[in-house]
Amino acid sequence: MNRKHNQPNSDHLAQISEPAILLRINQKYREGLSQDELYQITRGEWVIGKRRVNARYAFAVYKGIVVEVYRIERWMPFTGKTPSTYQRWCFDGSIAENLEHYKGCNLKHYFKHGASNPVMYLNCD
Question: What's the structural domain count of the chain?
Fold first, then answer.
């Protein structure tokens, strides 16, 4: 898991047809993360609803750009310490090689201006 992150192609507005969850990792992302560090912050500790079970993929999104895409294998309750009392969840997964074409694509059009929720469901109903 030592692959270098692709440079963003912010001109390409991607249209996602797969059942997916967009996970905005803006607060924890930084340049130079290893693939394992990126996976750990993406798999997360999310306050997330039941529709999560319908998602097959998790998109790691930084400032509207896809950094990586993971195939979700299962969801588990997050058992670590967090500052809130809400149930949090994390997923086990692996890099979705079949969706590499999304890396570097722009997803800003999916997020309403001013929206603060870091989780967005696509095609998960």
Answer: 1
Full domain range(s) for residue 17 = 9-122
The CA distances from residue 20 to 2, 42, 74, 83, 109, in Å, are: 24, 13, 13, 27, 15
pLDDT at 8: 46
- Contact at 8 Å (CB) between 72 and 91? yes
In sequence order, the β-bridge partners of residue 121 are 21
Let me know how long the chain is: 125
List residues bridging with 89 in a β-sheet: 46, 77
What is the torsional sign of CA 112, 117, 120, 125? negative
Domain-located, residue 3? no
What whole-number distance in Å separates Cα of residue 43 and Cα of residue 51? 16
pLDDT tens digits, residue range 90-110?
Answer: 999 999 999 999 999 999 999
Q: Strands 20-24, 57-62: parallel, antiparallel or unpaired by DSSP?
A: parallel
Please report whether residue 47 resides in a domain.
yes
